[in-house]
């Protein structure tokens, strides 16, 4: 154990100077070239809210067979409201949603397990809003544990108390309790999602789409596509997340230190693709589409581990949005999508006639993609189509799309020309000793594996002028407003990590196992930077980015937010 910890420390020391040198040359060159070409022709920087740091995991193989177990769900969750009025006049009373989490026992992949549903649905309700709207979501927690909802991709400028991360930006909503999230969407639009940020209970079903429309969006219904849908993909484990996390912290899950890759792949909450199982499986989920239309799918990977590769037999598609950035993207046969990422693709349904049916694949044949007319299903025949012959092999590198293809933003964006501060976060698997003196294997940043002071949120600590305890979480601070660089260094040979930063977009300079995230430090708060592989996060892979601590001290806590912490044991430890 000691030797292993030392090895990680040595790698850290050796790596950082090399990294700094490697990083700054390309950044400077890129910047010079942009200036030289002038403002009308220079290439905008890439902007993203999640990034994938390379190395690799092996994808699972899956088998499929149709059977009698059916699952039903509300299809409106996956179809955007065609009568939604896109306007720059904010909704007068805000966009209200009510969210009630309860425990159910359905069988999304043919295997019955406990699931946490929202309003009785899995996935939960789709929220649509306009840029400028205030979103008000009343959450009632009927589960036997604390909960929270995070609004993935929302900048939360001035509303950092609504970011929904227990131990960071709030105390958990207690079992039987409620809380109202209230935030205004400013200066952003595109495809987002919401999910629980309590432990890895997002893997138990607490997830849904969040779509922000805007008159400023260059992608327009009627002009670029004829209708739009949400396509939610995920790996799915047949046991509760608590069990997985506890076993990983102990001897390993199913005897393995490697987190589960899923027992099934879900498409819009249903699966036909069970992995390594002879269980009876449901009939494939079905995506019904009209013929001769351009259909925009807002694709989300809400899983806990696998990078999924989406394809539709005989249907190439064009990528038009990356996270929430509209792009001129490539025509693809296959889209790689890591956990937490969103892409919009436009699929032309011009490959056949009514009744034709094709496999939709996400690492395996997982859904029927069926041509229908007026919502009438002409046949229930299962697809017999063949996969594209150029799909990536199951064990191929987990490349992010922008590593292999050119993605040009439709609206030019420019990174800050310089950074006021630069901070390095090196992340690695290792053995860490927690506050109680217990050794655990897990993940850390800068040799610290996150320990969650769940009832004393970091935001409250900074608000009262306290500095964050660096033995509990790696943390860095940007004091002023301007450009800021976060160098993320992935020291784990053989493990891919899709990192996610809350509260801010970043421009990305990437070099394989390291990346420079250039941010604009204009959103005061204490923002999580973490791996979106939920099992890695549960093993401590979380760091804190403090932005403008002085401003944080000046923004008052909402009264109902303070109530979540009132009377709670401030010394309690929560799940990461
Ligand atoms: Cu990870």
UniProtKB/TrEMBL annotation:
One of its GO terms (molecular function) is oxidoreductase activity. It comes from the Eukaryota. Pfam families: Cu-oxidase, Cu-oxidase_2, Cu-oxidase_3. Residues 107-214, 228-367, 509-550 form the Plastocyanin-like domain. Residues 1-22 form the signal peptide. The keyword Nucleus does not apply. The keyword Translocase does not apply. Belongs to the multicopper oxidase family. This is Laccase, multicopper oxidase, benzenediol:oxygen oxidorectuctase. It comes from Saitozyma podzolica. The gene is LCC2_1.
């Amino acid at each position: 154990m000691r030797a292993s910890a030392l090895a990680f420390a040595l790698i850290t020391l050796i790596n950082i100077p090399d990294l700094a040198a490697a990083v700054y040359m390309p950044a400077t060159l890129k910047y010079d070239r942009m200036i030289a070409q002038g403002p009308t022709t220079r290439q905008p920087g890439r902007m993203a809210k999640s990034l994938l740091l390379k190395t690799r995991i092996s994808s699972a193989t899956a088998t499929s067979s149709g059977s009698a177990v059916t699952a039903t769900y509300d299809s409106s969750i996956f179809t955007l409201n065609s009568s939604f009025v896109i306007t720059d006049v904010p909704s007068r009373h805000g966009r209200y949603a009510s969210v009630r989490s309860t425990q159910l026992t359905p069988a999304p992949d043919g295997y019955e397990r406990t699931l946490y549903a929202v309003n009785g649905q899995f996935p939960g309700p789709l929220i649509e809003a306009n840029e400028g709207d205030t979103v008000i979501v009343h959450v009632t927690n009927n589960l036997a544990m604390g909960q929270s909802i995070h609004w993935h991709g929302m900048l939360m400028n001035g509303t950092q108390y609504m970011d929904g991360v227990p131990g960071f930006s709030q105390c958990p909503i207690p079992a039987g309790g409620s809380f109202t999230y209230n935030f205004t969407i400013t200066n952003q639009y595109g495809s987002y999602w919401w999910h629980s940020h309590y432990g890895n209970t997002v893997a138990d079903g607490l997830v849904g789409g969040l779509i922000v429309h805007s008159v400023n969006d260059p992608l327009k219904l009627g002009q670029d596509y004829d209708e739009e849908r949400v396509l939610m993909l995920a790996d799915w484990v047949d046991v509760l997340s608590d069990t997985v996390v506890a076993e990983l912290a102990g001897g390993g899950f199913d005897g393995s230190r490697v987190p589960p890759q899923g027992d099934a792949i879900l498409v819009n909450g249903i699966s036909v693709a069970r992995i390594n199982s002879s269980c009876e499986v449901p009939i494939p989920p079905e995506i019904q589409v009209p013929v001769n239309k351009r259909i925009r799918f807002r694709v989300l990977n809400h899983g806990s581990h696998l990078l999924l590769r989406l394809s539709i037999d005989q249907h190439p598609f064009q990528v038009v949005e990356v996270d929430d950035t509209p792009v001129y993207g490539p025509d693809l046969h296959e889209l790689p999508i890591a956990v937490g990422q969103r892409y919009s693709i436009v699929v032309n349904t011009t490959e056949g006639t009514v009744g034709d049916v094709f496999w939709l694949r996400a690492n395996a044949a997982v859904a029927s993609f069926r041509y229908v007319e007026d919502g009438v299903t002409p046949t229930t025949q299962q697809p017999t189509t063949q996969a594209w012959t150029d799909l990536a092999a199951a064990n191929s590198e987990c490349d992010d799309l922008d590593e292999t293809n050119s993605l040009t933003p439709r609206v030019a964006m420019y990174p800050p020309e310089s950074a006021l501060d630069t901070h390095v976060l090196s992340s690695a698997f290792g053995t860490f000793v927690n506050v109680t003196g217990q050794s655990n294997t897990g993940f850390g940043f800068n040799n610290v594996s996150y320990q969650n002071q769940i009832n004393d949120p970091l935001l409250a600590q900074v608000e009262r002028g306290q500095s964050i305890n660096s033995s509990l979480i790696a943390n860095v601070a940007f004091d002023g407003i301007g450009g800021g660089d976060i160098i993320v260094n992935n020291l784990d040979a053989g493990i891919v990590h899709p990192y996610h930063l809350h509260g801010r977009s970043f421009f990305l300079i990437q070099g394989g196992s390291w990346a420079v995230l250039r941010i604009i430090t204009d959103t005061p708060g204490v923002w999580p930077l973490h791996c979106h592989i939920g099992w890695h996060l549960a093993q401590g892979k979380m760091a804190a980015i403090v932005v403008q601590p002085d401003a944080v001290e000046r923004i008052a806590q909402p009264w109902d937010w303070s109530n979540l912490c009132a009377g709670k044991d401030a010394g309690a430890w929560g799940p990461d």
